[in-house]
Specification:
Layout lengths: L1 H30 L8 H34 L1 H11 L2 H29 L4 H28 L1
Amino acid sequence: MSKFRGSLKKRLIRWIITTIGAAAVILISFLRYRSTGLNGYTESFMGGFQIGMFTAAALIAVWNIFIYSRALKSKEALRKLYIKETDERDEAIKNKVTYMGFWITIGALMVASVIVGFYSVLIFKTLLAVLAFMCITGLICKLYYYKIM
């Protein structure tokens, strides 16, 4: 359990750093909200997206800080968190969801690339780059995990 406690302390530090980073990006987004030189709608949309995305990241980080801090203070909470994180059924479900989600996303990007190719070359190339990145990343991960497992 002491090894798990050490792991939680490291994760807690990473979540604190994430919270600080997200807060900094939110602050910068507010300060630079009107300085992109784009039209009003695009500028507003981009600023709102950035602020919303990093606010969500900060909220997730704060939630994890709360959970990990509570677990580090109580042996019972630590034991429950350990059981929850090492549950084999949950791990199998997460692996299956990740696997299926990856292939569904690859398929959706392929279909979207074909459809958007009739309308915009720029978006087609962007989707193609994302598709290539996902395939290469999946291959690298697969080779890596075959080697270490």
